[in-house]
């Protein structure tokens, strides 16, 4: 599919399921242009944005903040631990309040799957919602930076052999990526503990043992073991997990010379991937973090375009 223009218009960004292939390619294209030095559009008026993170984050939170500042937006501090959330304020009432104060865009990470539905369905709230991760639901900005990284490498998605390996059930990154990568024509494989795999993923790709397919892969996408979302399902020692499902030196050598390794991070070193491979030649893990800033600039631009057209 040829890459399309960079004129994507969004009211919210909450799930990859809501984006067309053209919109995805447009956002990636714009992210690449911004990374290559293309200037962002001048703001016509003051725009306020607030980042509401109710779950821990380094990359998503800080790269949205860098993206916002590069675009010249006014970033309104929000810290859940010192806000009225501690007095029982609900997420809905927090966003209702910020909206009433004039905040235009709320970037939100929350543990509740689909938390955004009550916000985008509200007749009162007019702020745009950007989902920075909803529990084990969706992580659209991570998915877009992953797609940008793959596109920069291969210039296409059609026919690429991509294995998503690890804690798939609990991973919002996996959910977002499997949906869009299948739509874009990639051939998907899933690997990892059967305890963290569900038949619902069969419609997107094939569940295999990592050693059965590693030599054929273009992209080896590793996932963090999400201990905070586990409920006693599947307990492995670091060594056992690394040996059975992780990327060690032996498996690294079996990858094609053109293959790349990805991981949304944070990385559990020597669990999903050997410590020595995080910055190895085939790794794009650091590049993914860098690309996050530019694709998030593209997302925010598309949202501002959408607000202008309202
Ligand atoms: N990949 C990712 O979402 O990282 P953070 O949890 O640090 O934001």
TrEMBL record:
It catalyses: carbamoyl phosphate + L-aspartate = N-carbamoyl-L-aspartate + phosphate + H(+). Its EC number is 2.1.3.2. Transmembrane segments: none annotated. Residues 158-302 form the Aspartate/ornithine carbamoyltransferase Asp/Orn-binding domain. It comes from the Bacteria. GO terms for cellular component: cytosol. Heterododecamer (2C3:3R2) of six catalytic PyrB chains organized as two trimers (C3), and six regulatory PyrI chains organized as three dimers (R2). Catalyzes the condensation of carbamoyl phosphate and aspartate to form carbamoyl aspartate and inorganic phosphate, the committed step in the de novo pyrimidine nucleotide biosynthesis pathway. This is Aspartate carbamoyltransferase. It comes from Streptococcus hillyeri.
């Amino acid at each position: 599919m040829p890459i399309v223009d960079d004129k994507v218009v969004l009211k919210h960004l909450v799930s990859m399921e809501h984006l067309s292939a053209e919109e995805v390619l447009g956002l990636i294209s714009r992210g690449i242009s911004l990374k290559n030095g293309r200037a962002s559009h001048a703001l016509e008026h003051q725009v306020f944005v607030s980042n509401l993170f109710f779950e821990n984050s380094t990359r998503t939170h800080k790269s949205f903040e860098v993206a916002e500042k590069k675009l010249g937006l006014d970033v309104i501090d929000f810290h859940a631990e010192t806000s009225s959330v501690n007095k029982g304020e609900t997420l809905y009432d927090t966003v209702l309040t910020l909206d009433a104060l004039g905040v235009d865009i709320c970037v939100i990470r929350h543990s509740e799957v689909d938390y955004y539905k009550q916000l985008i369905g509200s007749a009162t709230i007019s702020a745009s919602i950007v989902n920075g991760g909803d529990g084990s639901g969706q992580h659209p900005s991570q998915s877009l930076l992953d797609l940008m990284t793959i596109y920069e490498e291969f210039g296409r998605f059609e026919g690429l052999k991509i294995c998503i390996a690890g804690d798939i059930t609990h991973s919002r990154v996996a959910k977002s990526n499997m949906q869009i990568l299948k739509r874009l024509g990639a051939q998907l494989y899933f690997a990892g503990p059967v305890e963290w795999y569900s038949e619902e993923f069969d419609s997107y790709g094939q569940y295999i043992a990592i050693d059965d397919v590693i030599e054929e892969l273009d992209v080896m996408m590793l996932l963090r073991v999400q201990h905070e979302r586990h409920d006693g399902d599947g307990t492995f020692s670091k060594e056992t997990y690394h040996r059975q499902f992780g990327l060690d030196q032996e498996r690294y050598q079996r990858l094609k010379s053109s293959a790349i390794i990805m991981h949304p991070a944070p990385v559990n070193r020597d669990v999903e991937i050997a410590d020595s491979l995080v910055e190895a030649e085939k790794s794009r893990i650091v590049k993914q973090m860098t690309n996050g800033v530019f694709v998030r600039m593209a997302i925010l631009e598309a949202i501002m375009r959408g607000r202008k057209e309202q």
